Amino acid sequence: MALFVNKNDKRSELQERIAAELREKAIQRSKQEHNDMDGVTDQAFMKDKKQTTSLAWVWILIVLFIVAASIFFIVKMNQTPVMV
Questions:
Q1: More confident call, 39 vs 43
Q2: Angle, alpha carbons 54-64-82 (nearest 5°)
Q3: I need a labelling partner for 60 at 20 to 30 A (CA). Which of 6, 67, 69, 74 fits?
């Protein structure tokens, strides 16, 4: 009986040691991730980004024109009687 209890204790010690190691690794990893990311000024986030040009309003007008033209054609198609 004592051997059985001793065997379970060793297993518990091993499990506790593994759990402690995993906890320590998780803490180190979270510290590393927290230090790598600094929000909007993060270099990886800002890489290959361009500032909006002064012609952005032209693209907005083009999109609005396409939407308006699509709505106009849909309305006209529904108003025109179909000859059968």
A1: 43
A2: 160
A3: 74
Q: What is the domain range of residue 7?
A: 2-38+55-79
Distance in angstroms (rounded) separating the CA atoms of residues 48 and 43: 10
pLDDT above 60 for 36: no
Report yes or no on 21 lying in a domain.
yes
Inside any domain, residue 50 = no
Copy the structure tokens of residue 80. 């025109």
* SS3 state of residue 82: coil
pTM of the model: 0.38
Torsion of CA 11, 13, 19, 22, to 10 degrees: -100
The domain tally of the chain equals 1
